[in-house]
Amino acid sequence: MGSADILSTLPELVLIATALLLLVMESAAEPHRELLAATALGGLAIALVTALGYGADGLYYSGMLQVDPYARFVSALALVLAALAIMVAVPYLRRTLEERGEYYSLMLFATVGMLLMVKAQDLTMVFLGLELLSIPLYVLAGFYRHRSSSNEAGLKYLLLGAFAAGFFLFGIALLYGSTGTTSYSGMAQAINSGTELSRVLTLAGFGLLLVGFAFKVALAPFHMYAPDVYEGAPTSMSAFLSTGPKLAGFATLLKLIAVVFAGTMVHWWTAIWILAALTMTVGNLAALRQDSLKRMLAYSSVAHAGYLALAILVTNYDSGFAMLFYLTVYVLTTLAAFGIVSLLEEGEESAMPGVEACKGLARRNPWLAAAFTLALLSLAGFPPTAGFLGKFFLFNATLDAGYLWLVILAVLNSLVSVYYYLRPVVAMYMQPGKNTSALPIPRMLIPALLALAVVALGAGFIPAPLVHATASAISAIL
Amino acid sequence: MTTALFYLFSIFLLGSALFVVLNRHPVYSVVMLVFSFANLAGIYFLLEAYFIGILQVLVYAGAIMVLFLFVVMLLNVSPERPRARWVPLDRWWFGAVALVFVISLGALLVRGVGQLPSARSEVPDGFGGITQIAEALFSRYLLPFETAALLLTVALVGTVFLAKRKI
Amino acid sequence: MSGFDIAAALVKVLLVFGVTMLTIMLMTLAERRVSAFMQYRLGPNRVGFGGLLQPLADGLKFLLKEDIIPTQANRPIYLLAPVIVMVPALMTMAVIPFGAPLQIGEHLVPLQVADLNIGVLYILALTSVGVYGLVLAGWGSGSKYPLLGGLRASAQLISYELAMGLSIIGVVMLTGGLTFGEIIAYQQETGWNIWKQPLAALIFLIAIFAETNRLPFDLTEAEQELVGGYHTEYSSLKFAMFYLSEYANMITASAFMVSLFFGGWDVPFVDELAMGGWGVALSVLAFVVKVGFFLFLYIWVRWTFPRFRYDQLMRLGWKVLLPLALVNVVLTGFWLVWRAGA
């Protein structure tokens, strides 16, 4: 191990140091809580600079990590996502008097997990990164210790997550047994040259890995936990829960398939086809019936996981590019949507804001209503927004690969989803609400809303910068 | 001799693991889980991985499971409620789903294991000793090792946060 | 494996087992006689010469007592517990060398039942399994005092196991091996570890007192609070098994301590290996004397220190011994690196 290795993990080290500093700050006799969020954001900013600027591309830590444009792009997105999620959390935590160093600290640890996952070049590191992402999330989902709904969310997530981790590990064990290695390059060599000990074990191992990933990104039928967990968790946390694991999970899975399993995927097409079809249908149909905004967004995130699974099914340059584009748009819009929902949550803490909480929002704060509308339209995939472009790229790539019926199903699903995405919009603009007091936008939420505007509208009208960034990132692995 | 021992350990291992899952009495389950760990350690010994085997006993059987037992005893799951002695398998769809899963995965594994070469290789000198493990752990697997340490730290922070009454 | 090896192994097993059992008997007597001595009384001195046969009488009494299984007890667990305590306690002695290797004809017989390449960990693993016996005994009795004793036992033993394990690491780092043979050979060459690892030795000593549930750490069976702790509900032979294994654990712990820090069977400035049979006899004698000293120390401490309160016990384990043991590991590491550089 040399200084180049350390330099390659500089972003992670910065984050870890910041996270530990936050814990120390929290345990001070008189903690200066107002400095916590700023410290966390500072750490993330430094990490972002180092992730983009420092170190050369290549393999590090004796082949455990690989730094390439793909990893850099996803890392940067993860860091931005984490920073925005923290900013969304600040007003929410302060309003509910739960602002604590542990929240930000655990967020940073989870971010380290995400970075390690996408950089990983070895299944050992993927697993450890996944757990490093998951364990803080279990705690954060149950962060509001005095709310029974939050406790339930944390416990449910923990139990099912541990179960899924078992599948993941078993998969790694089978792959190791079959190929004699856990490194991407070693496994790829064994699989492509046909020298693995048993093709059946390789396939079974990948299947179990897929189950583990499917749980983390909430693909049906492994999505059961998602609505309950996203609803019960603190709303600022639901924002991260529905985006962070999906970003890291899909990015890692795509890389894994592209680099290692491309040669064996023919056996898995049917299964992934069914997963994708089932996920988008179940997610959208269930979302139709939800009154709670958080549950609605939760099912919507399941549905989007279904769309993203199309890219996994195809796994070529076009679909990979479309997936990155889609992911970028999806995580930033969903984050902003949850951020806005967290503002609507007022009064009774156990009462989750329903669609009626949106009533009259256009009068209470037109900017907020406009932002929420933009987020929902982008999620639904309306034409001028980037959500539309993302869906277009994704469906187009899938169609080119010859999955006509799946694309038809996806388009039908998108049409269905318009109904539930527009219900809050209708409530905001056309129905008068009981509460007419002005609802100011907290300053900390403004960056998240700006990011939403930039990515949903900006990338919708001028897609070239984002297209270039994602295309150059994806060309590193496909 | 080795083969016979292997089957003995395996049967005990699987039997006790099944017992853990099917029995409803938490204390019995913990005790049987410890027993299954001991058998797993036995299999490690047969593979000449003495260090891993003894760690299995020392860490899992000796430390972690004691904490399990500790918790189970503190919770004091009362036998007053009428509880079935074994996990009810009468809801047929549970059983059916489990059966489908077990059979399909089992069939895959049996086929896969059948493809494995049966040749045995001699283990090199010092195999599974602390020197070899330490060298692997602190060179090639340095990063996973450190990440695992970080993971434990995070788990500790989370546990203290969730469990401590007043923080 | 030749016939000679098998015979030698059998003899050694019988010897170690027999001597351990004999020492346990002597310890039960010594405990009472030394206690009496410290309290200025006589103690049991009627059965046999100076009370030497008292342990036999006690054993006979245990055998003949009525064996009671409380109705509240959980039978399988209740019956299993003493066995789980007893078996590891008697198994641990197997890896401890009790004398210099003996030359018989052309065979060099190590005076040790089994030289495992993970000997140190073997003892730690077995003692950690023994904890189950106490916990299960406490739970299986179906009575509140044993339950409290069992809970205390599990918490205490796990807490001190950490400090104990970490204090050993310093020694293992110096030696570069986990077998007792290597550890003792290292000490013969370079002097006893007590001079190089005094902090570790102190931590280890405190930890084994806690691990064997002896005063000042006998909270698991504190008579004044818990009647008899985890073995309150046990009678007759099953009680005897707890009783015996407690002393067996003390003997193993003393032998462990001697082997790690006091050179095992080594006599300083004497080359036992060159002296032939006499050297072996001398080494065995040295081992017995050293172990005897620590066994005496157990009793000595018992009548010298008051019992810790439970929170004090936990604080000592987690906030004092554990950090100190970690510091010791780090310091040892620095020293090794410095020496390698120099």
Brief digest:
The complex is a heterotrimer of chains A (478), B (167) and C (342). Chain B is mainly alpha-helical. Chain B is 74% helix and 0% strand.
The major pleated sheet of chain B works out as: none
Percent helix of chain C, as a range, is: 55-70%
Give the structural class of chain C.
mainly alpha
Largest interface, by Cβ-Cβ below 8 angstroms: which chains and how many residues each?
A: A-B, 40 and 26 residues
Q: Would you identify the regions of chain B where 5 or more consecutive residues have pLDDT less than 50?
A: none
- Give the overall pLDDT of chain C as a whole number: 84
Overall form of chain B = globular
In helices, the fraction of residues of chain B equals: over 70%
Poorly predicted regions of chain C: none
Radius of gyration of chain C, whole Å: 21 Å
Number of strands of chain C: 2
Largest sheet of chain C: 2 strands, antiparallel
Your description of this structure?
- Chain A has one domain (3-474).
- Chain A contains 21 helices and two strands.
- Chain A has helices spanning 3-8, 10-26, 36-53, 69-95, 101-119, 123-141, 148-179, 184-192, 199-216, 225-232, 235-241, 244-261, 269-288, 293-314, 317-344, 361-364, 366-380, 386-400, 404-430, 446-461, 464-474; strands at 58-60, 65-67.
- With 167 residues, chain B is an all-alpha fold.
- Chain B has six helices and no strands.
- Chain B starts with a helix and ends with a helix.
- Chain C is mainly alpha-helical.
- Chain C has one domain (3-341).
- Chain C has helices at residues 3-38, 54-64, 75-91, 119-140, 144-175, 180-190, 193-196, 198-211, 223-226, 236-261, 277-302, 310-341; strands at 99-104, 107-111.
- Chain C has a two-stranded antiparallel sheet.
- In chain C, helix 1 (3-38) runs parallel beside helix 11, helix 2 packs across helix 10 and helix 8 (198-211) runs antiparallel to helix 10.
- Chains in contact: A-B, B-C.
- The interface between A and B is medium-sized, with 40 and 26 residues.
